Amino acid sequence: MRVLIVNTSENTGGAAIAANRLMEALKNNGVKAKMLVRDKHTEQITVAALAPSWLHRLKFAWERFVIWQANRFKKNNLFQVDIANTGTDITGLPEFQEADVIHLHWINQGFLSLDNLQQIADSGKPIVWTLHDMWPFTGICHYSGECNRYETACHHCPLIYGGGGSHDLSARTFRQKECLLRHTHIRFVACSRWLAELARRSRLLTGQSVCSIPNAINTNLFRPSNKTQARLECHLPADKKLILFGSFKITDERKGIRYLLEACRLLHDRCPELTDRLGMVVVGKKAEQLQDVLPFPLYTLDYISDERRMAALYQAVDVYVTPSLQDNLPNTIVEAMCCGVPCVGFNVGGIPEMIGHQTDGYVAQYRHADDLAEGIRFVLHDEERYAELSRQAARKAATTYGEGNVAMKYIQIYNEITGPNRA
What string of DSSP letters covers 94-150? Predict the structure, then answer.
């Protein structure tokens, strides 16, 4: 069986990392998997890319201009929405022609348009689409926040400056998607049960099959290891309890950094015997901006794309905190847990599916900085409890997210949609 995994980027962003890992997992389980991307960054021979062209940047710029115009020439939420009004026809590429299954992942920012998706559907090849956010079943947004209009029909979009209107960009794109999906059968796979439930509520996916399969991870790489050695490798202090926070851009409000900062201040005030030994490791762009607002030492690193370096970093820290305000199934939680690092996060999105409250981590009340602080204290305060949390995290992650388990679930879907009785 030949599977073509389609994603905008090869390894930048959570969806790209998940898609790349799935490709490797499938290859390790007998599937001839390749990846097709617009933005390639390595020499991996099973990753094909569109021919380099200035047109790709122009298409992306054109899409942003249309959104900017609809937004009354304001920058508000400019990169929180996509309209897929321009892209590239991939159906004539040899990688597409050879494939038995087309497996879509994150295809936005000028890579594939809605017309291109129609061309893929018209080819007659079976399609699987892994949902990494809400965009495939909303009008234009990747995360809808408090808005649930996508359940019936998008309009008056809160992400459009001024609130949009009854025939705004979200409404028009919603209708285009509806025309595409009305006559196209796609097997949708959400990375979390939370996202799968939201997808089933959308009018766009009426009559479509939606299931949930988590992202895969290489448990031979992401695994518990010697913490002292890992800290030497990462140039981190040996005498601190280290909290890890990471984001491609730490100032992204959706990542909830302000709640983490408030939790740190509360810890400093309430638990001086603990916070005297604490340090914060922050990975991402503009991490140094936190230097003057944290009550304990800060250790900053730029965004890390190399998986071996990332595994070593997880192995070096004591707890991973993810104060995200809306998220699907973060790769970072999977990676940390596989390395035996307990996680603390808000009760939102797919996070409570991943973290077992007070069994392998701590699930804090949504937007409650004081409970986030309590979660960090709970994990780090007692050495015996910490050791058990760490063991349970590694055990659950290896069982749930191991490459073999995830690959076999996808292979079952591939067999169903390519067999003689395919839906």
Answer: HHHHH-SEEEE---TTTTS-HHHHHHHHHTT--EEEEESSSGGGSSSBS--TT--GG
